Amino acid sequence: MRRPFGSVRARAALAATLVVAVALVAACATVLLSLRGNLTEQAGRDADSTARRVATSLATGTAPDALDLDDEDPVQVVDGDGRLLATSEDLEKISGTGVSDVKPGAARPDDDGDGDDDGGDDSQQNGSVSDDTDYTDGSATIDGDSADYRFAAVEVEDTAYGDLTVYAGASLEAEQGAVNTALTSMLIGFPVLLVIVGGVTYLVTRRALRPVEGIRAEMAAITASQDLGRRVPEPDTHDEVARLAGTTNETLAALEASVERQRRFVADASHELRSPIASLRTQLEVGAAHPELLDVDGAVEDTVRLQELAADLLLLARLDAGEKPGGAEVDLGALVREELSQRVGDRVPVAVDVAAVPQVSGSRGQLARVLGNLVDNAQRHAGAGVRVAVRAEDGRVVLRVADDGQGVPEDERERIFERFVRLDDARTRDGGGAGLGLAIARDVAERHGGSLTVRSAPEGGALFELALPSG
Fold it and tell me: Most CB atoms within 10 A, among 12, 17, 288, 402?
């Protein structure tokens, strides 16, 4: 069952939509808060202007009941005792100023303390308007219309009526209308924009991933047909998908080469095994029928050859399986002296020149096998002798095996390290083995972190050089 959002396209579209949604929410909230703050601040400035105009009139001697307060916005004049002295016309209800009265009482000048209640010249006393303004939010009903207001409170000191406070309001209707309009527009445009973002992201992602689907389909076809010669299409985009296709084709090529190499290996191994087994069977059948004709030496030789071939194949199988060489410390010079001292029946003498060298890390058995294979190869091609030398050079331990034979042609120097390869003029099947010795030697060298190469020897033959990092 296919899960929702199971494709990369759907997940990319969803992720892009969510990111844009979060960004839009944050942006919309910022815009709305900024818009509301600016409009509220503007209403506060309007309220402060009205309050200071009334306060200036009071400070210059105008009596509260003589003020012109027929503005559409609410205004209150309150004395120090909280009594309402003046208010705007048609004010029916108010909140947010601290004084809920809407009908003013009679305003009387303050007593100057000398018993003269007529006030004398005190009615002309000038006051001072405070530079500070306090703001509050509230509501008011004027002539039946109710609305929210921003109130500014300005104090007037030392008037003929004592200290007074003027409250003036500015309507927040414009602010609320603008915020509501912006919010409505955002709520309408928000889903539309998200749908567009999601759709565009889905289409763009689908187009970008179309080569990936082509790669997947071709890989499925290759798996079904088992035809490793096929390759996935490589888009001409020079991006990650193109690099993926290129890497996939490289992997397929390596896999095809590996399978082909394994197929040749099996075919060659079967062919190589067939010859000694058939020879041994023939000799045994002849011996069973005619005991006096049994070639015991030939049977033993075929058995030994079969045993060596089986051992080579088993070692190659272990190397192909990634067998680690181990981390034992091996004295390559001592190994060479010991192994060569045990050799018997060599066709030509072997000269040994071993210097003191550092130890190397690896498998003693596998390194001994490399030495044996190289010396055996040199014995088959040498004319009069074989020379083996061990030296320490540039942080490496180098083993050289040279012969005075015909050498290896330069264009064949890499090919001889392939499995089951025998040069046409090098040796016959009976005298030359199966062609696995040098392949095994190079595999072992590389798994020990070293190298095995061949070049011309000073004697004119082949010089094989095994270089291993010193421990």
Answer: 402
